[in-house]
Q: What sequence folds into this?
């Protein structure tokens, strides 16, 4: 489950970096709505990172699949929010449901995994 540990850490690093950027470097350059979108993406991504770290120590294929879906879904969803906030291109929003569906599926898989 090393890959899950790495994926969780990567999600955590990106989430923290985006929160710091939004609080400092981007604060004066983006609208309040864009900053809120970045915060939402970062919080969701950090939550997924914590879940990934918790699941990384579990064995079994369902735990691995569920964690991978949660982490990849959070990355896609958050990256979409970051991209919309930084570029102003709302056409990118079509990618967000892919990440959301992956996260929902991941949590569903975890429901059937052995603890």
A:
């Amino acid at each position: 489950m090393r890959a899950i540990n790495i994926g969780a850490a990567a999600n955590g690093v990106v989430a923290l970096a985006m929160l710091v950027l939004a609080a400092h470097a981007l604060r004066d350059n983006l609208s309040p709505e864009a900053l809120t979108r970045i915060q939402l993406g970062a919080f969701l991504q950090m939550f997924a990172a914590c879940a990934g770290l918790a699941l990384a120590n579990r064995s079994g294929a369902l735990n691995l699949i569920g964690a991978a879906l949660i982490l990849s879904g959070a990355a896609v969803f958050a990256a979409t929010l970051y991209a919309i906030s930084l570029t102003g291109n709302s056409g990118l929003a079509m990618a967000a449901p892919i990440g959301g569906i992956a996260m929902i599926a991941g949590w569903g898989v975890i429901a059937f995994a052995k603890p």
In short: Residues 61-87 form the longest helix (27 residues). The chain has one domain: 2-111. The chain is about 75% helix and 0% strand. Residues 2-111 form one domain.
